[in-house]
Amino acid sequence: MRRISIFGATGSIGQSTIDLIARDPETYHVVALSGGRNVAQLAEDARKLNAEIAVTAEVARLSELRERLAGSGVEAAAGEAALIEAARRPADWVMSAIVGAAGLPPGLAALEQGATLALANKESMVCAGPLVMQTARAHGGAVLPVDSEHSAVFQALIGEDIAAVERVIITASGGAFRDWPLEKLAGATPEEAATHPNWDMGQRITIDSASMFNKALEVIETKEFFDIDPALIEVLVHPESMIHALVGFRDGALMAHVGPPDMRHAIGFALHYPERKTLPVARLDLVKLGQFTFRNACETRWPALRLAREVMAAGGLAGAVFNAAKERALDAFIARRIGFLRMAEVVEETLNRVSAQSGLITAGITLDNVRAADHFARVTADEIITQD
Ligand code: NDP
Ligand code: MG
């Protein structure tokens, strides 16, 4: 049996992963499941899948988790150290689907025990891409992309020579405000930003899609995952969300990955890789779809895309600072403390202030240094937000 763990099991990606695993109970032994606030879902799935251990990130919810698991034989635990411990339990395949920088430590722990890491948590790559890849190499594990664009690039590159790649285009739906006039954006509310035209995802990534911070993180993730020169990475708005990425080669060929906006494709691809197995995703009727359209992704409308380029040029821990500042700006937007357009300004100002501190960005990419940069960026972003 294949031993599987799912971190962020109660979220959108986690639930889609469980949907696939639960269809084939004879094949999988579930080692660990993790969640945050939603201990009811966590306990229900841990019972259903007969997991060894269920971990909530929230220490205050441990007693509720214990009660819900009473008599099931599933162990209960809570807190960050427990998450890392659970990730150290031997498993063959581990899904990293916690949202935010909190996903990095359990992902590294899973790689350290030699697991294959299916990486939905793009923040791991943005904060510490070289560390993630080097940890995988050092322990004989592998990292497989789950983000749909990166899964698409990965699939387009199978059997290809990376040196023959001329361009990598990742697509963006444009999010909730794609067609809003620029002057309306300042007054956009969290509820308006949290509706996505095509994908059904967690609240945070949906708002990040409207601001293009999601795409900004993905551009950096592309660079880190495939070790691609940032100058070769392009973003195009593709409102239909059917083509997830295109890879251009030096002979002029463009390989496009087409599929319905259903994350169970990318999750299932990573689950069964290197094989392709039947997956429960819709088959596209191309005639009905009729056409695929593309537009340029304007950096005035979406300054997050410009910031991503600056972060890649700065290198080092700039990604960790960028992500942490983005997380705090997003928290403040959700709490209605700052407006929609202010998020990018807070992130830019945080990057400027932290970069001015000598040595912070240029320190080596270790987990301790990532944590320090992340912490300093959060404090700085909070200061900027409080001044508003
Ligand atoms: P959700 O918000 O739906 O789920 C997040 C998961 O993380 C939940 O299990 C949540 O627990 C848990 N969690 C939240 N905060 C913490 C924390 N501080 N420590 C530990 N666990 C925590 O997110 P998504 O599933 O949408 O996204 C997960 C990751 O996958 C993100 O990195 C996202 O960018 C990426 N991704 C998602 C896609 C999608 O289609 N949804 C597509 C591509 C990438 P609880 O809910 O119980 O509080
Ligand atoms: Mg994506």
Automatic annotation (TrEMBL):
**So where does NADPH get bound?**
10-13, 36-38, 121, 123, 202
A biological-process GO annotation: isopentenyl diphosphate biosynthetic process, methylerythritol 4-phosphate pathway involved in terpenoid biosynthetic process
Name one matching Pfam family. DXP_reductoisom
Query: Keywords in UniProt for this one?
Result: Isomerase, Isoprene biosynthesis, Magnesium, Manganese, Metal-binding, NADP, Oxidoreductase
What is its EC class?
Answer: oxidoreductase
Q: InterPro entries, alphabetically?
A: DXP_reductoisomerase, DXP_reductoisomerase_C, DXP_reductoisomerase_N, DXPR_C, DXPR_C_sf, NAD(P)-bd_dom_sf
Query: Which residue intervals define the domain 1-deoxy-D-xylulose 5-phosphate reductoisomerase C-terminal in the entry?
Result: 143-226
Enzyme nomenclature, EC number: 1.1.1.267
Q: Any idea what this protein is called?
A: 1-deoxy-D-xylulose 5-phosphate reductoisomerase
Which reaction is catalysed here? 2-C-methyl-D-erythritol 4-phosphate + NADP(+) = 1-deoxy-D-xylulose 5-phosphate + NADPH + H(+)
What is the protein's known function?
Answer: Catalyzes the NADPH-dependent rearrangement and reduction of 1-deoxy-D-xylulose-5-phosphate (DXP) to 2-C-methyl-D-erythritol 4-phosphate (MEP).
Binding annotation for Mn(2+): 147, 149, 218
Residue intervals of the DXP reductoisomerase C-terminal domain: 259-378
Which organism was this protein described from? Salipiger abyssi
User: Which gene does this sequence derive from?
Assistant: dxr
- Positions contributing to 1-deoxy-D-xylulose 5-phosphate binding: 122, 148-149, 173, 196, 209, 214-215, 218
Q: Which GO terms describe its molecular function?
A: 1-deoxy-D-xylulose-5-phosphate reductoisomerase activity; isomerase activity; manganese ion binding; NADPH binding
State the family it belongs to. Belongs to the DXR family.
The coenzyme or cofactor needed here is: Mg(2+); Mn(2+)
Keyword check for Cell division = no
